[in-house]
Specification:
Layout lengths: L1 H15 L7 E6 L4 E5 L5 E8 L4 E6 L4 E8 L4 E6 L4 E8 L4 E6 L4 E8 L4 E6 L4 E8 L4 E5 L2
Length: 150
């Protein structure tokens, strides 16, 4: 269950993260127990690990500096993203009415949303105005999620 939560958190986190390149990949590193992000040239741009003590996902740049954290808020039923100092940046929450996961800023304004496309077998990411900004698709050959912009 933790790996599923971690994987979904990483996908969302990668979207809102500063780690995103135009086309990037993310892959699980079993040795270090973390998800690593690579740019289109295969260079490591950052990584994310689950912290058992704080029960949160921590995002680091390639040099190991903490960028942000993500933790589940059970009271509000959402995942909250905070900067390195602990200030709320954004949160993601499932919207049952529209059947999509929405990302909102600290004030509650819609930033983007993500939903599953059965036909293409991928997660599509849209901006607040409903324009497709990119999509995540699983690469079975390399066993990794890849993000592409249209």
């Amino acid at each position: 269950m933790r790996k599923i939560f971690l994987l979904l958190g990483m996908i969302v986190g990668a979207f809102v993260s500063d780690l995103c390149a135009q086309n990037h990949t993310q892959k699980w590193n079993d040795f270090y127990k973390r998800i690593e992000y690579f740019d289109e040239h295969g260079h490591l741009t950052g990584y994310a690990k689950y912290n058992d003590f704080y029960k949160r996902i921590e995002y680091y740049d390639a040099k190991g500096h903490l960028l942000k954290t993500e933790k589940r808020n059970d009271f509000y039923q959402r995942n909250e993203t905070k900067d390195a100092r602990g200030n709320l940046q954004s949160y993601t929450k499932w919207n049952d009415f529209y059947q999509r996961e929405e990302t909102r800023d600290a004030k509650g304004n819609l930033l983007s949303y993500k939903k599953w496309n059965d036909f293409y077998q991928r997660f599509e990411v849209y901006d607040a105005k409903g324009h497709l900004t990119g999509f995540y698709k699983y690469n079975d050959f390399y066993k990794r999620w890849e993000y592409r912009e249209p």
